[in-house]
Amino acid sequence: MSEVILEVKNLTKEYKGQGFEVKALKNISFKINKGEFVVIMGTSGSGKSTLLNILSALDAPSSGTIKLNGELQEKLFKEPNASFYRQKNIGFVFQAYNLLKDLTVEDNIVIPLILQNMNREMIDERLEEILNVLGLTKWRKHRPTQLSGGQQQRVAIGRAIISQPPIILADEPTGNLDFNTSNEVLESLYEMKNRFNQTVLLVTHDPTVANYGDRVLFFHDGEIVGEYECRSENDLESILNIFKKITERSKIQ
C-alpha cells in the first residue's frame, strides 16, 4: 500500500497590488506518495515555480492546506518554523546550480550536514558515498568554475540529497544543459532517489524531462488541467500530445 508523504488541498496564491490582482494558483489539490517521482509540467506563467516556493515555505499561500506525513503544517510559513521545516524535510536542485564558487566540490556538498552540526565522521562517510554514486570523486577538490554544467548540477544534487531529506524539489534542473548531459543528470537524480527512497517533485516545460517521472501533473493558468501516469515506451508521445493541447489552449487565450 502506498504511503502518502505530501498532500496539498485547495491551495491558492493571489498577488495583489494597486490596480491589479493575479491568481497564480487556483485551488490546487493533489497527493504524492513516498518514493514517487512526480513532474509538474506547464507553460511559462502556469504556476509551477509558485507551487515549489510554497511547498518549500519560501512563500505563503493565500489559502489552502499542506500535510506532510499526514500532519497539517499550520505554522509552516512563520519563522523559525519555515527554516526548520526546510532543513529537515526539503532538498533543493536549481537550474542555476547555486554553488559557492570559492568552495570545493566536497565542501559544497556537505554544507547541509555542517549546518546540522553533524559529526565529522558521519559527514565523511556520507560524502564518500555521494561522490562515488554521482561519479564526482575525481573532481572532489575542484571548484565550480573548473567543472562542466553537468558536473556542477551533479554537485547540486549531491548537496540536495546528502542530508537525506524526504522530499527533493527540482526547478528546471536541466534548463541550462544539452540533451545528453540532461539525461545524465536526470539518471543521477533518479538513482539517488531510489537509493534513499526520496520523493522528487520536478518542474519542467520539457516533455523529454517529464518522461523520467512516474507521474506528470499538467499545469495551465494556475490550475491542474491533466494528469498522466508513465507506464510504457510510448509515454513521451503521450506527454507531447497532452502538452501540445495545453500550449494551443494558452495561445488561444
From TrEMBL:
GO terms for cellular component: membrane protein complex. Keywords: ATP-binding, Nucleotide-binding, Transport. This is ABC transporter ATP-binding protein. One of its GO terms (molecular function) is transmembrane transporter activity. Belongs to the ABC transporter superfamily. PROSITE patterns: ABC_TRANSPORTER_1, ABC_TRANSPORTER_2. The keyword Nucleotide-binding applies. The keyword Ribonucleoprotein does not apply.
